[in-house]
Structures are given as structure tokens and as C-alpha cells.
Amino acid sequence: MPWSTIKLNDDTVIPNLAFGTWKLGNAQLGQDRVIQAFDAGFTHIDTAQNYGNENEAGDALHRSGISRDKVYITTKYSGRGTISDSIRQSLSKLRVDYVDLYLLHAPEVSKPDIQTAWAEMEMLQALGLAKSIGVSNYEPSDLDTLLKSAKVVPAVNQILFHPYVYAETLPLLDYCAKKNIVIEAYSPLIPITSKPGGPVDKPVARISAREHATPAQVLLAWAKTKGTVVITSSRERERLDGYIQAGDLELTKADIDDIDVAGALGSTRF
């Protein structure tokens, strides 16, 4: 089944594949890479205050000629200045009137404290500056603190997600599922990009050969089976095209189980 959308707990929908702008670059080069992602078929851009390239993402959207309602934009408050000032600065850089999703980037930047920061996020949503609000890198204890005073349940929790951390992440995944909080998965390709040579290589290679797919496509398809919004990136158009095609890759239950087990085996080392 191709990449599609996931319904959030606030009744909005989010594309389940996103192009991440972390380490993407700045100025013309950064713009060109976002344009390239649009051309490949990405409709969801994930950026952040501290990535330093919201301007480039905004300029790329403007250059592309794509109408605002055809692109889903996520950005994050990373702890610089106040939340209220920061979202307005982000909107100016992105050259838009609202973002589709605004996140607290981590518990430690949720200033002055989690509950106060979340109340500010709720206010921004009420003002229409963000259609949906959520968090990133939050553990169950952080979410417990937030929910004690929250009027709005976070729509998403964006976390590190790949086979080598999957087993240890299960309690968080279960918690979020019970609260109807969608998981966004960043760095799903770590087993092949920065931690090759581990147990996950074997099942991924086997599936790749059988399906005539790349290892990256297999890992993206695996993350998709977990019901996550998958965030990935590349500077190469050919790889971006492959990431789009990964939406059509159907893994069997045995495939998924094999990757899960291999990930658990390598979780300590990798």
C-alpha cells in the first residue's frame, strides 16, 4: 500500500512519510534539496528552530509554486526564546500563516517547565498558528507530567525509532497507543547508515534480495508497518525516489518478526 495519511487525535490527518531537513544545509543548496524532495513526491516537510534552515524550507515552498494546502509543515520549538515568539519567527521564516504541526523538541527545552510550556502550546493552537501540537523525545514520565494539567492531548510524539531501539521503546509505544498519540519515527535507517554489521543486516538483506528492493526501502517499510509517521532524508534524488517507492513494499509478518528479533539481539551492542 502506498504512503498515505494517519488520522490524529484532533481529527486532522498527517502524511505518513516526511522529508527531514536536519543537516540538510543552508542557502541555495538547502533550498534546492527541499525542492528536490517536492519533485520526488514528498508532501510533508519536517524542520525545527535549531536546524537553522526554516528559511530555506520556506523559500523552497515559495519557489515550488505548490499551494500551501498541498504541503504539510512540521517545525519545533527548540528552546530559543519564548514559545510564543519562536513560533511567530518560524512562521516568518517559513513564509506561512500557520504550521500543520508544532512540537516541543524535547522535555529539557520545555521551558520554564513542561506544564507551563504545554499550556503555551495549547494557546498557540487556539490562535490558529498551529493546527496540531505535539512533543518530541518525551518518555512516559514526561507525558505523565504534561497530562496532569493538559487540556489537549499531544497529537504526536516524535522519537528515535529503528530496529535496535525498538524493543526498549515498546513501553513508550504502548503508553502512546493507549493515549492515542501517534509516533513519528526519526532516523529509521540507522542500522545501515551508521551501525552496519549488526544482526539486522541479515534479514534486511534477505528481504531486499527477494523483493528487489534496497535495504533502506526495507527499513522504511518496516517502520511503516509499526503505524509510525516515517521521517527520512537524503541529498540524492535517486534515493528519494526509492524512499517514495518503499511505500509499495509489503512485508510479511515473518519479515517483520525477523527484523524485530534481530533488532533485539543487537540492541545492547548497537
Features:
TIM Barrel, eight-stranded parallel barrel, oxidoreductase, NADP, oxidoreductase activity, acting on NAD(P)H as acceptor, 11 helices, 10 strands, two-stranded antiparallel ribbon, 270 residues, AKR, alpha/beta, single chain
Beta-strand portion reads 15-25%
Shape: globular
Strand order of the largest sheet: 3-4-5-6-7-8-9-10
Helix content: 40-55%
GO molecular function: oxidoreductase activity, acting on NAD(P)H as acceptor; oxidoreductase activity, acting on the CH-OH group of donors, NAD or NADP as acceptor
Family: Belongs to the aldo/keto reductase family.
Pfam family, one: Aldo_ket_red
Protein name: Aldo/keto reductase
Detailed description of the structure:
Substrate binds at residue 105. GO terms for molecular function: oxidoreductase activity, acting on NAD(P)H as acceptor; oxidoreductase activity, acting on the CH-OH group of donors, NAD or NADP as acceptor. The record marks 76 as: Lowers pKa of active site Tyr. The chain has 270 residues and is of the alpha/beta class. It has one domain: NADP-dependent oxidoreductase domain (TIM Barrel), CATH 3.20.20. The chain has helices spanning 27-40, 54-64, 83-94, 114-126, 140-147, 163-178, 190-193, 201-211, 215-225, 237-245, 253-265; strands at 5-7, 13-15, 17-20, 44-46, 72-77, 99-104, 130-136, 156-160, 182-186, 229-232. The protein has an 8-stranded parallel barrel with strand order 3-4-5-6-7-8-9-10, surrounded by 4 helices. Strands 1-2 form a two-stranded antiparallel ribbon. Helix 8 (201-211) packs across helix 9 (215-225). The longest helix has 16 residues, at 163-178.
